[in-house]
Known about the structure:
With about 100 residues, the chain is an all-alpha fold. Helices cover about 80% and strands about 0% of the residues. Helix 1 (about 5-25) crosses helix 5, helix 3 (about 40-50) packs antiparallel against helix 4 and helix 5 packs antiparallel against helix 6 (about 85-95).
Amino acid sequence: MLFLDVYIMRLLGLWSFMVLWFLSPFKMTLGKILFNKEFNTPVDFDDYLFIKNKVLGKLLSCWICTSFWTSLLIGIVIYFVYSTPLTTPLITFSTTLV
């Protein structure tokens, strides 16, 4: 698998997740399922999650933090699924801010 293929796959996966997480009502739906609580805005979900678990609340409400860990996770998945070199996760998480 070419480097460009891996990079594009990671980029599309990251952008899809970031749009889904930060620009859709997915957070509120997930909060309703996990916590049995109604959230009116994504900020309400972020605040509630921060009160419950400060570290997780910070990580999931920050664009940079979320993109870094999502990129690393996508790189690890690509590494195992497509048997790419071990440098794949390193390459994918080092290019998070695109």
